[in-house]
Design brief:
binds 3-methyl-2-oxobutanoic acid; eight-stranded parallel beta barrel; TIM Barrel
């Protein structure tokens, strides 16, 4: 049975951790779904791990939809969320509505995620939610702002922490169903998790969140680089290289 927003909410209330991972293609999505992950995010990190760009900025709405369609074909149970890419929602609320509408019309997404907090995103998120589109917020390290903030931990001074807390509360007011907390101190993530009524999903934000998300390429050992907080559960890089070497050897074997 498909995971619903109500079930994610219930997991928070029952203090049962929510599991989330990213996917950008059919085969991996199918495996994640079969393994029982609660949420699958078609993250714009696919720009880097799948498409080979240096950051998430170049990926287009068309490309996100293309990948989300493939992922959707592999998902039966998990709650499917699609990231809104850079500049598909920041220019105006109208453009955000059109971009988000395309994601819901053209893919099996049941939620969208967009980066940023108060004041910029509050009106936009409110409008999207009013139009029936579930939105997950994303605060802390927001990779679409890499040229402004880099990939540093966010919220490490009292003022910066208060600002992230303020943004989180404003996003809840705007109607988000969940909030992604990226690369912020564990104590701050725990505090936000206790104060807001919607599930928090952390990445590099300690164990106090309602759930955890990682980029699947990091978990499987397929990334060129991985952040210190990302546990590698298998080294597919070595396994695949060995398998391909073996295949090449077999093909090149002299025929008798
Ligand atoms: O794009 C992405 O993969 C993300 C991560 C923070 C999970 O948003």
């Amino acid at each position: 049975m498909s995971v619903t927003i109500a079930q994610l909410q219930k997991l928070k209330q029952q203090k049962k951790p929510i599991t989330a991972l990213t996917a950008s293609d059919y085969a991996i999505a199918k495996l994640l779904d079969k393994a029982g992950v609660d949420m699958i995010l078609v993250g714009d990190s696919l720009a880097m791990v799948t498409l080979g760009y240096k950051n998430t900025l170049p990926v287009t709405l068309d490309a996100m939809i293309h990948h989300a369609q493939a992922v959707g074909r592999g998902v039966e149970n998990a709650f499917l969320i699609v990231d809104m890419p850079f500049l598909s929602y920041q220019v105006s609320t109208e453009e955000a509505m059109r971009s988000a509408g395309r994601i819901f019309k053209e893919t099996d997404a049941r939620g969208i995620k967009l980066e940023g907090g108060y004041p910029d995103m509050v009106t936009t998120i409110h409008k999207l939610v009013q139009a029936g589109m579930p939105v997950m917020g994303h605060v802390g390290l927001t990779p679409q702002s890499v040229h402004r903030i880099g990939y540093r931990v966010q919220g490490s001074t009292p003022d910066a922490a208060a600002e992230i807390l303020h943004q989180s509360k404003a996003l809840v007011e705007a109607g988000i169903f969940a909030l992604l907390l990226e690369n912020i101190p564990a104590e701050l993530a725990t505090q936000i998790t206790k104060l807001i009524p919607v599930p928090t999903i952390g990445i590099g934000a300690g164990q106090g969140c309602d759930g955890q998300i990682l980029v699947t390429h990091d978990v499987l050992g397929l990334s060129d680089w991985q952040p210190p907080f990302a546990n590698k559960y298998v080294d597919l890089n070595s396994i695949i290289t060995e398998a391909v070497k073996q295949y090449c050897q077999d093909v090149r074997k002299p025929k008798n």
